Amino acid sequence: MTKTPLLLMGAGGHATACIDVIEQDARWEVAGLVVSASEERQQLLGYPVLGADEDLAGLLGRFQHALVAVGHVRSAEPRLRLFELLQRLGYTLPAIVSARAYVSTHASLGSGTIVMHGAIVNAGARVGRNCIINSQALVEHDAVVADHCHVATAAVLNGGVRVGAGTFIGSGSRIREGVAIGERCLVGMGQLVLADCESGTQLPDKAGR
Question: Annotated catalytic, 72?
Answer without folding.
Answer: no
